[in-house]
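Q: How would the structure tokens look for this protein?
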Amino acid sequence: MSGINENTIDTEVMKALSDETRVEILFLLGNKELNVNEISSNCKISRPTISHHLQIMKRAGVLVSRKSGKEIYYSVNKYKLTSLAESILAFIYW
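A: Here is the predicted structure in token form.
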């Protein structure tokens, strides 16, 4: 069992990305930042459900947010995704 505890793949990020809706939100955000209303207007699910998915991704570090007035804008944490990709590649080429 050596190496099993040396896992560097962030399982919380993997869990956050394991939902089809959250992946859709991730692609929707791409290289821009959007608020909940802008995201929900491009998805077929309710605003509260979008907010729930955003919070899961934010807790996992997949998204970052900033507040402007009453609105919260979300964007992709590219560092976290790059780190995940590097961990997966390291695992594959180990």
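The chain has one domain: 4-92.

The helical segments are 11-16, 20-29, 36-40, 47-60, 78-92.

Upvote if useful.
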